[in-house]
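Structure ticket #2291
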Amino acid sequence: MTLKYINITLTISISLMLLNCGGSQKVITANGYVYEVKGNKVMNNGEEVTESLTDAEWNEIRDLVKQREKAKKEAEKLQEQLTDQQDELDKKQEKLEKARKEAEEKRLALAKKEEAFKNQLEKRERARKDYLDAKDEVAEKIRKYEKLRKKGKLSPNDEEKWQRRFEDLEKEVAKAKKNMDELNKE
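Resolution: structure written out below.
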């Protein structure tokens, strides 16, 4: 049984007891008689029987009334305790929910940071690869140029074209290096 169910059940029970005990109380004695007690008057079947009761019967009825009042007070005390416990549980539940939300927000923020970090790493890796590819291309073109030059297959016009290619390639290398350096600074 959950605490909430117990709390509701006790609330209903106490409410019914209080309604039954309004201005008078009904008691059933050990011998099976039903009496209605109003203050110091005892009624049986609508007739006052206070004077006709023996001391033992009167004491038994008073004890039953006292027991009922004691049980009523204990039930009220228990109801207060349960209400206090329910309030504590509600507060703890609110704190847990707040902590869960904060943890979820932090998790999402970390996930975003992780994604941004991965993207940054990928950009850096692409820039490094572009730089290395540009350097490799320059080295390859230089080898090809040197090979053609040694074989004597370059005309003066070819020499100019190769120089322009080298300048363009060096610009690409410089641009790739600059891009890589800028990304590495971040």
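Closing remark: The mean pLDDT is 84.
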